[in-house]
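FORM 12-B: Structure-to-Sequence Request
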């Protein structure tokens, strides 16, 4: 699925859950419902979308089985650090987030039978990383630090899944 199609699906799901205010990726045509409203609401929609994905990942990690030899807890710690880092960066840019419902997305073709929460968390972290990489570089290192923490969380989940599936 290309990035535009993924964005359209994200918009459709999030828009329905959020009453038309969805998390979208910059560069969508202005005739896509909700795209203009988000761009007007936030200066840095990629950062806010990354925050929503990180929060979804955190929820999934909370629900995951605790059979991952510490990888789950390490991933939780990294996700929390990434969230705090983004919050600081957004505050410094005077773009604090309003309270909007999070944008849940389908996990797609994940293996639902084996550790679904960890797999969902992994997908949300990958979403967050994509959004962070697309975000502006003006966050005085907070963006790059959030990417680093997100990468560490991804690695912990991948290592945990690998260890658990042996």
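FORM 12-B RESPONSE
SEQUENCE OUT:
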């Amino acid at each position: 699925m290309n990035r535009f199609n993924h964005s359209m699906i994200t918009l459709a799901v999030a828009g329905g859950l959020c009453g038309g205010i969805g998390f979208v990726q910059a560069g969508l045509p202005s005739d896509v419902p909700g795209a203009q409203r988000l761009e007007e609401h936030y200066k840095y929609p990629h950062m806010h979308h990354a925050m929503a994905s990180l929060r979804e990942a955190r929820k999934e990690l909370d629900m995951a089985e605790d059979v991952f030899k510490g990888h789950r807890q390490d991933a939780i710690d990294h996700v929390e650090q990434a969230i705090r880092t983004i919050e600081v960066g957004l505050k410094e840019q005077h773009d604090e987030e309003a309270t909007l419902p999070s944008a849940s997305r389908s996990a797609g073709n994940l293996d639902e039978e084996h550790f679904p929460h960890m797999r969902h968390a992994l997908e949300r972290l990958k979403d967050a990383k994509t959004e962070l990489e697309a975000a502006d570089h003006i966050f005085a290192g907070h963006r790059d630090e959030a990417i680093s923490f997100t990468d560490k969380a991804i690695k912990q989940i991948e290592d945990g899944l690998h260890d658990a599936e042996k």
